[in-house]
Fold Pyridoxine 5'-phosphate synthase.
Amino acid sequence: MPAKLSVNLNAIAMLRNRRDLPWPSVIGLGRLALAAGAHGLTVHPRPDERHTRHSDLPEIRALIDDEFPRAEFNIEGYPSEDFLALVEKHQPEQVTLVPDDPAQATSDHGWNFAGESAFLTPIVKRLKKGGLRVSLFSDADPDGIGAARDTGADRIELYTGPYGSYHSDSAKAAKELERLGKTADAALAAGLQVNAGHDLVVANLPALVKRIPALAEVSIGHGLTADALEYGMAGTVGRFLKACGW
């Protein structure tokens, strides 16, 4: 089965937050994305709420529950106590743990699984006890996969930022793609499912899903939102689904 598409709403929320106005509507555009065939919605509610606001979360949860019950809600963020309480309250189908500092503009690296296993393991256990699927943000590094598995997580999410940054250098992109592929191979062999996200676009998705045919999900926000300015949300979701192999 092709990789499922989860639409990250953060860029839409950031645009809304430039003005004290209700548009663009995070919920409305999320509805359009799901109606067009997206498999889920992703948010990263940072402590300063500069993107998705905490008040968006119950509305997204209700949108999925009431109108698109087969879709999934994915909440990503650094696992502070406040974040853990937030996800436990809103019960997403998936929680993606990322090692970013609150001041970062965006996530830009994966976990040091060996060095931070003592921190991550009880958090993963807590979330899984609550019935939540747990994914861990991962660099393209096969050597860390054993430690990632040992935390008890269900999945890793490959950080594809470097791959996306080589959009104009095919040789470097191919080299980075192979690093991602080898990391995915190691994860799948260890019993972990594999997601991917960051700077993915219609142009670089086909090569990624070809190299990692068992890819479970891609979470895409910035590139998808940029395309939606040109093609509309429904048309853009269709383009990304096609790039994923649907």
